Amino acid sequence: MRARLSSDTVTTDYWHLLTDGRVQCDLCPRFCKLHEQQRGLCFVRQNQHSQIVLTSYGRSSGFAVDPIEKKPLNHFYPGSSVFSFGTAGCNLACKFCQNWDISKSREMDTLMSRAEPENIAQKALELGCQSVAYTYNDPVVFHEYAIDTAMACRQLEIKNVSVSAGYVCEKPRAEFYQYMDAANIDLKAFSERFYHQLTGSHLQAVLETLEYLYHETSVWLELTTLIIPGENDSEAELEQMTQWVVEKLGPDVPMHFSAFHPDWKMLDTPPTPLKSLLQAREIALKNGVRYAYIGNAHHKAADSTYCHACGELLIGRDWYQLSEWRLDSHGACGFCGAVCAGHFADKPGNWGAKRIPVRM
Question: What pLDDT sits at residue 100?
Answer without folding.
Answer: 58
